[in-house]
Each structure stands twice: as C-alpha cells, then as structure tokens.
Design brief:
single chain, 336 residues, mainly alpha, two-stranded antiparallel sheet, 13 helices, 4 strands
Length: 336
C-alpha cells in the first residue's frame, strides 16, 4: 500500500522501500558469491592449462610427468593451490559488500559452554553423513548408474602421512572454513541466520563438484555452519572440519596397511560407533547448557526465507555456477 501527502503525491510504504533495498542487497551479494564460485572453478583449469602449455613449449613433458604423478608432490601442490583458491578470491565478498574481512570472519574465542558440545556433535554427524552418501551411491548402482569422485592417492611412509595430514586435514580446516563459514556466511548474515546458513551450506556442497561428495558436504556444511553460529566463532568450524578430515586420513592409512577385509570392517564399525557416542554426548551437553540451543534467531528481515532463496538462485552468476556444477557432475557419471 502506498501513502499520499497533502498534494496527492504518491510515496512508497516504508516497508516496501525496505523490501526493495533488501532485494537489491541480496541480489548483489548473491552475484558476488556466484562470481567467486566461477573464479574458484576457473583457477584449477587455468593453472593446469598453463602448466601443460609451458611444458610443451620447453619440451619438458617427460620431465614433469613423473613429478606430477608423485603422490607426495601432489599433496604439496594441493596445499598451495588450496591456500590460494580459498583466500584471495573470497576477500571479494566482504569488500564488495562494503565490509572488512575482520567484520565478517568472526575469528574470536568461542562460547565456552557450547564449544565442546558442538565439536562432539559435528564430529559425530560426519560418520552418518558418510553412510547416507554411500547408501545413495549404492542405490543408484543397482540401476547401473555409477557416481565417480576424485581419488586421492596418499604417499607412503611417515613423511607421506604427515604431508597428507597437512594437505587433507589441516589446510582445508583453515582455508575452507575461512571461505565458506567466514566470508560467505559472514557476508550474508545481515539477512538472517537461516539464510546465511543456507547460502554457506549450498556453496560448500557445490564447490566439491561431484555427486558423491555433494550430499555429504551439504549436510556437514549445515552442521558446521550451525555450530559456528551457536558458538559465535569460526574456530568451532575449523575444529570440526579438522577432526572430520583427520579421521578420514587416519582411516585411509589404517585400512591400506591392513590386508584383512574383516579387520577393515571392524575398524569402520568402530569408527561409526565412536561417532555415535560423540554425537550423543555432545547432544546431551548442549541441551544441558541451553534447552533452546537448536533454535536460530528470528531475522528482522522484511523478506521471507523463500523470497531470499529465490533471489539467490535466480542471480545470473549463481545460475552459471549451478551449470558448471552440473557439467562437472555429468562428467563423473558412468552407466553399465
């Protein structure tokens, strides 16, 4: 409804003005998020193309081939690329929204009463998210549809384990959390906690680029994002991410070292059991500290959650991002 002054001149309802302004801001932020995703998708393509072309120019293909097939070198390479990809491009988000990195990163001491419960719960959920993802894969395989995912070849020995642990557990815990729960969620939090949580979770899942990891990443993204919100610190997300990936590296080396399938299954079951215990303990501790711990703050936004999500998914750069993800996923599907 519009209002009229004494001269019968129309002016907008203040609520409508606020809606228009909020829509404008969400469209801008959504396009920034999509632009960062496109950069994230392009960087590996550009780097790999440059390496191939430079090697061809100097006739160094035979020299570089054994280097880039060495698992130890690949772990170092992955670490360096991850640091570059998940830091520099993401600074665009707060700067493009008129904020500083320190304003949105939220790197401070977490709430003491909530930190341990959410770290335990987050670590516990990871096993069940993995099980659900594996179940989906097995279901589609019954129809002859196979989802492939990038296979990690771990280097051997103690030094190889240390490199793998840094590349797979330590580095992603810092840089991916800085990017998703820091820059993406921090920049979008002014539009409500639920919207910010959804944005960061969707982005986190899409950046994995394959149908095997996307469901797992969506669940874990939501869990980690919620933990960061409730504890008031990005440190919580880093801790959960580190524990989850650290377990994955340790289990991979353990199963590789053990030839017995029975023992491998026992280790896997033990891991699931441990995660179940951690989840239950964390849940009890969280409820003991705060009965309303699983509720989010109500937003003073004039737009509904659905309206905000519609604006997100209709942003041009987000549409392009979804298209790139679909292409990546289709390339990793095989039929028998």
């Amino acid at each position: 409804m519009n209002y009229y002054n004494q001269y019968n001149q129309v002016f907008f309802n203040p609520v409508e003005l606020k809606k228009l302004e909020e829509k404008r801001k969400i469209k801008k932020v959504s396009n920034l998020v999509g632009a960062v995703f496109i950069i994230l998708w392009l960087v590996p393509q550009i780097i790999s193309t440059m390496i191939v072309n430079v090697a061809a120019l100097f006739g160094a293909q035979r020299l570089l081939a054994p280097i880039f097939s060495d698992p130890a070198f690949l772990m170092v390479y992955q670490t360096v690329i991850s640091i570059l990809m998940f830091t520099l491009p993401f600074i665009i988000l707060p700067l493009g929204s008129g904020k500083s990195v320190s304003q949105v990163a939220n790197i401070k001491k977490p709430k003491k009463s909530m930190f341990l419960p959410f770290v335990l719960m987050g670590s516990g959920v990871s096993a069940f998210a993995n099980l659900m993802t594996n179940s989906v894969g097995i279901y589609f395989e019954t129809f002859g549809i196979h989802f492939e995912s990038p296979q990690i070849e771990y280097p051997e020995g103690l030094f190889g384990f240390a490199l793998s642990f840094i590349a797979v557990a330590v580095t992603p815990a810092f840089v991916e959390e800085f990017a998703t729960r820091g820059m993406v969620m921090g920049t979008t939090r002014e539009f409500g906690q639920a919207f910010a949580l959804a944005c960061s979770s969707v982005f986190f899942s899409l950046m994995h680029g394959n149908l095997v990891q996307i469901p797992f990443a969506l669940i874990m993204g939501a869990v980690i994002g919620f933990a960061v919100i409730k504890t008031g610190s990005l440190i919580t997300g880093m801790a959960i991410h580190f524990i989850n990936n650290g377990f994955a590296v340790i289990l991979s080396y353990l199963t590789e070292a053990i030839s017995s399938v029975i023992l491998q299954n026992i280790i896997s079951l033990a891991y699931v059991g441990l995660c179940a215990v951690l989840l239950c303990i964390g849940l009890l501790l969280a409820l003991k500290a705060d009965k309303s711990v699983f509720s989010l703050e109500k937003s003073d936004s004039v737009l509904t959650f659905g309206e905000k999500m519609k604006l997100l998914f209709t942003a041009p750069t987000i549409i392009v991002s979804l298209g790139l993800t679909v292409i990546d996923c289709l390339e990793m599907i095989s039929f028998t």
